[in-house]
């Protein structure tokens, strides 16, 4: 029982103290704490790792502060296209949805794919039809809207034509408001959410959900719904990633954390460090990941200025951090 633990993230990127006022910092901290408490309750009552990560990511999707579900970022075309995935380390069962535009909770659709389909990944309208057939809620485009994301998108479009990680765009918008406008850093901003857990049976699970990167091209799919890239769990480790999706895909980043442990005998911490601090930067990858192993070890590395993150054991206090 004592190895049971849940860890969550709300994205990595250019998250700096100078772009954050105390009230906003409190909002993020409290939101992360509430999600961890909910995940902790699932684990403490003997729930599975799969149930704990599903509930944590569902709550993060419901929270407009994060770039998943409500509060998702916009594509270049001004639309919302969401991606999500989940994996059960005990069975290697997995499910994902990509480019969905009408699902309230993409992670619940990913879970339905894992639980009720012979397939692993559904995209677009087929994914929505599958989710609807399994009783999941569809919403109109307006549901995802937040003023903050709209302003980020307008800024990203006005200053340059490239896609930005969510928290990089937020920082740029805040600096601009404070009269400290920087030239836009093309490499900065991610706001994806994710959760990993080890339950009291020693089973592992991971889930990840995102609106993608601000101002992305319509139809672009990142690492989040791809098993092995932005989400992975087996009987060694569970991993959820956030960052420049293209590089996480090319590095098969989430799977690599487990593979280095299995094949090279690395610890969870050292394996995750090599992926985030060496392998991803070598190809221009920015971001971070959260990972747990079956002994209940937790690591939360990132190579950006900050990452919204935290963890909680089945009993005991929750721990939340933002900056490096
Ligand atoms: N990894 C996500 C993507 O590329 C973005 C993020 O982490 O915020 O879609």
UniProtKB/TrEMBL annotation:
The active site is at 192 (nucleophile). One of its GO terms (biological process) is proteolysis. One of its GO terms (molecular function) is peptidase activity. SUPFAM superfamilies: N-terminal nucleophile aminohydrolases (Ntn hydrolases) (SSF56235). The record marks 191-192 as: Cleavage. Keywords: Autocatalytic cleavage, Hydrolase, Protease. The keyword Iron does not apply. It comes from Cupriavidus yeoncheonensis. Pfam families: Asparaginase_2. This is Isoaspartyl peptidase. CDD domains: Asparaginase_2. Substrate binds at residues 220-223, 242-245. Gene3D superfamilies: (Glycosyl)asparaginase. Transmembrane segments: none annotated.
